[in-house]
Amino acid sequence: MTEQKDPRHTVVVGCLVRNDENRVLLIRHRKRGWEIPQGRVEESEDLVAAVRREVAEEAGVRVEIGPLAAVWSMVSPTSALIFAFLGRYISGELNPTDDSEAAAWVSAAEAVGMVTSHVMRERLSVLLNHDGGVTYRSYSLKPYQLHQERDLLAWPEPGGS
């Protein structure tokens, strides 16, 4: 009999933040390059508090957290659940910290051009094109492969999954 392992998932939150001029907040990560602010949820921390903290740590600004816009499930090579929210800038000056090399307000078109990682660009695209639903995507890396995509708020058709 094989021993069952307890499931182990890393939980990550991210946020597409827009300011009053409809510009998008990007941070530059040391390894991944430009991306939306995001990071791991800490022990005993709720998702909304985690996303507020991550934006403050990576960009130095306060944000109002809006709706959950997307959920990604990375199933390989490790397991991670990524919850992405929409947010609105409230206050503060951009001030990258030890968690990021730079932070910038850019247009949506500029943001798409600046984000070079395939996974991060897809994540950004989903959030920029948010239509009110909650996008769900399951994927694996090495190589990147999309396994499933659906709107979590849409009722499935009879016989669908």
From TrEMBL:
InterPro entries: NUDIX_hydrolase-like_dom_sf (IPR015797), NUDIX_hydrolase_CS (IPR020084), NUDIX_hydrolase_dom (IPR000086)
GO molecular function: hydrolase activity
Ranges for domain Nudix hydrolase: 7-128
One Pfam family, short name: NUDIX
Keyword Hydrolase: yes
Keywords, in A-Z order: Hydrolase, Magnesium
Keyword Cytoplasm: no
Cofactor(s) of this protein: Mg(2+)
Domain of life: Bacteria
The protein's name: NUDIX hydrolase
Organism: Geomonas paludis
